[in-house]
Amino acid sequence: MLFYAPDMYKKIVFFHNIKKQNGAKCVMLLVKNGTIHPMTDVGHFTGDILVADGKIKMLSAHIDGEGDLKTIDARGLNIYPGFIDAHSHIGIMEDKIGKAGDDCNESTNPVTPRLRAIDAINPLDSAFHNALSVGVTSVMAGPGSANPIGGQFACIKTYGRRIDEMIIKAPAAIKMAFGENPKNTYGSNGNMPLTRMAIASLIREELQNAKDYYCLKKNTNAGDFQIDYAYEPYLPLFEHKIPMKAHVHRLDDIFTAIRIAEEFSIMLTLDHCTEGHLEAERIAAAGFPAIVGPSLASRSKLEVENSDFKTVGILQKAGVRVAITTDHPVSRIQYLPLCAGLAAKEGLGRDAALRAITIDAAIIAGISERVGSIVPGKDADLVLYDGDPLEISGTAVCTIINGNVVMDKMSGNL
Fold this sequence. Notes:
- The structure is a single chain.
- Helices cover about 25% and strands about 25% of the residues.
- It is of the alpha/beta class and about 425 residues long.
- It folds into two domains: about 1-80 and about 375-410, Urease, subunit C, domain 1; about 85-365, Alpha-Beta Barrel (TIM Barrel).
């Protein structure tokens, strides 16, 4: 079957009836004649992509189609790896539902490491449609920033009806928050933490207890060890399998997060990093990556008064690996390519901006072995664009996840 890209796109079709997902065997797919942007050291080129069993099988200037093969003619279109938002609350803070759909913050206890994003994400949140409409195929989603220790983030695909079948990596990080949000959540009620000192103290005390537990478990026979589920979530953190995902806007909070990560020898991502441009070289010297944004949002509190699209470019040029986030729903998920475009305009540059929503986002999220670039063996997550995704006029016309076409503006009858 052959699908062409007409000049006018009259309707969008989202596919909810594809049952074969995440590694399940699919019909082979051949995407032909597109301009491929693999997001590797190889530059863009015109060619074909062969997909089998949900994975990218081959890239070449020309691939002959044989057997049970669906073909998409991408002539005149740009092909990118599916885009990645490395920090969001999609499915947890649902669109248009209000309190009934808000499971973002368990603000009854400041320390809640046991909370798992996958137990709250609703795959039927309408924002997932918005993500597919621009080619966002993977997200890192999790609890908000009311708690100094908020719970476990997960990396998921943006297509599916059962969260267990959408998971790329879970847990993917432990969320910790510094600054105004924990202070306002608890301090306003006369509870701890009231100050930044108390936030850091709570986190330190919890990490020390968790580290003691980790060391004890590692040096005790399994049959003699008493499991404590309050500290089990921290084990991947001390095993360097996942990072501390630190909500930090103000510069002093950024350095507090770095200080604590260094004290406990754990991995760290600096999420938001709003004032990171003020000391980019020192942040680069610490060696931790930054997930910057939401820059397309109001300066709604004091700690984001220096929010600017220039931040991510200044950090990147100083040597910090960066990703760009919408922090959905603070900025809406479908504006991720637009945010990358604005960052490119304000100094990040086009290539680095694309990396910040593809391969660099995947590396920071710890999922680059599966997504983030168009490489044989990786998941077949692709987006076909008419034009440049970083320009307002660029239009995603087809989104593919795990080799399945899940959004189509090209024909409407795949």
